[in-house]
Amino acid sequence: MIEPLIEGFLRSDGRKGIRNVVAVAYLVECAHHVARRIVDKADDPDVHLIGFPGCYPNAYAAKVMEAIATHPNVGGMVIVSLGCESFDREGLREAVAASGRPVELLVIQQEGGTAATIEQGLAAVERVRAAAADTPRAPMRIDELVVGTICGGSDGTSGITANPAVGRAFDRLVAEGAICIFEETGELIGCETIMAERAITPELGRELEACVEKAERYYTIMGFGSFAAGNAEGGLTTLEEKSMGAYSKSGASPISGIVKPGDVPPSGGLYLLDVVPDGEPRFGFPNISDNAEIVELIACGAHLTLFTTGRGSVVGSAISPVIKVCANPDTARRLAADMDVNAGRILEGEATLDELGEEIYERVLATAAGERTVSEELGHREFILTYKAFEPIGPACLPAGAGRGA
Amino acid sequence: MSLPKLMLLHPDDNVMVSIAPIGAGDRLPVDGAELSAAESVAVGHKLARRPIAPGERILKYGAPIGSATRAIAPGEWVHAHNMKSDYIPTHDRQTVTGAPK
Question: Helix H segments across A9-88?
Fold first, then answer.
């Protein structure tokens, strides 16, 4: 029996959040300025700006936006539409209302323009915030937590300090019934065989290999692998070398399934999030930058994200806190004020991988219990959502009985 | 006793990872003998543990991470100048601008 330790925000679907954010969403770039001004003027660390820039409709963007609007960390929403874009604003409003959350929709062309909508929007945020404040609290267990992981600005230390340390934390969280999600199949190229051996069924193992093959094909057509100049400056020479380091974030637990952006894993266990679009490349790179993947992890229910970095990323995220784990001891000194955990201590003989894994696990629980992460304190609220195309996951991706119910 | 400057990640590996700045000529204990660093190697970068032939797989974490593009002597820095990916070629900031490095 796991003792309750977190006071979650209880949502009508039974899920619990670790934050109670009011999301202000623009549905096209033309509404971005108005939405940003509303958020700036609200000046509240729990009022976050999210949005989608495109004017053309996209099923993926609609699914991710709805998943985030009804994410357990979200207490209510203010939607800002220009008026002529294709995003289904009424559908989004209805989905949020049906989830029991306060929601208001503002259409700039109907409200009377920029200044009028900003003024109306501020009043709407005030009403939504007041309603969201009445959200009931309930004890939340570790096996109700969803934790994602991502690496950004990796270097040659990432794969020997921060990434395996996150893997240790993941192993403990999975053992205690949490849902843990790793991702970025483009950075698992070269690891497909060893990864497939960890699948809970042979069919899932073949799907894991197929995921990575898809990623390799996609990135080959795009002309560049998921590899940045700074990776090489930090000692990583090839994509498959970067992959081996990135892969270690997943720890050693069996892999229970594959999800795609917007799918919430059914029960506790370790899951791979397939972020590479299906079919021929249509809209560009699968991960234009790290926050696009963080948004997808959140759309899969992640309450918080463990972000490992060697070169030194400074980002956070809207909606779900980011815990930054620094791999490189020099970076940890240079960017100390941006990091939550210094895993570089491993290289200086000051800590072991197991100790760091434990420290990360403790940070997860403290953050879930309400403590603000460094990026939250610094006001980082990055959010990117762009165009993609996906097919639904196949039947072998979530074997029956996956996770703790097995 | 000073801290080690190199980490061996897997017994099969033919490269080791620098975990503290290495200077040219540094004497490094490797496999019970002493290896001389051929050049400086920054933290996170790789150094050859044994002779590597052109075309030979580079092994790190016990797994292939690419192939040697020329002969590499023990103690040499191993990076884009002497190895390449067996999957998608590595790019840098000059790849699309064509600017001289």
Answer: 32-42, 59-69
- What pLDDT does A401 receive? 57
> What does the block give as tokens for A193?
């065989």
Interface of B with A (CB under 8 A): 3, 7, 9, 17-20, 42-46, 58, 60-61, 63-66, 78-80, 83-93, 95
Q: Sort strands A146-151 and A304-309 into parallel, antiparallel or unpaired.
A: parallel
Beta strand spans in A56-164 (E): 74-81, 103-107, 137-140, 146-151
B19, A160: Cβ pair inside 8 Å? yes
Which residues of A fall within a CB distance of 8 Å from B66?
237-238, 240-241
Select the residue of B44, B63, B91 nearest A156 (Cβ to Cβ).
B44
Question: What does the pLDDT look like over B16-45, one tens digit per residue?
Answer: 999 999 999 999 999 999 999 999 999 999
**What does the angle CA A22 – CA A26 – CA A32 come to, to the nearest 5 degrees?**
115
* Strand pairing category for A341-342 and A322-326: parallel
CA angle at A99 for the pair A93 and A104, rounded to the nearest 5°: 30
Q: Which of B58, B87, B88, B86 is nearest to B70 (CA)?
A: B58
DSSP label at B52? B
- Tokens coding A234: 């930090």
- Whether A293 and A317 have beta carbons less than 8 Å apart is answered as no
Confirm whether the ipTM is greater than 0.90: yes
Handedness of CA B25, B27, B28, B31 (dihedral sign): positive
Cβ-proximal residues to A14 (8 Å cutoff; 6+ apart), any chain: none
**Considering only alpha carbons, which residue of chain B is nearest residue A222?**
B88
Distance between CA atoms of B57 and B68, rounded to whole angstroms? 6
Q: What is the DSSP letter of A310?
A: S
Chain B residues touching A224 at Cβ < 8 A: 88, 91, 95
CA distance B94 to chain A (A): 9
The per-residue pLDDT for range A369-405, each reduced to its tens digit, is: 999 999 999 999 999 999 999 999 999 999 975 544 3
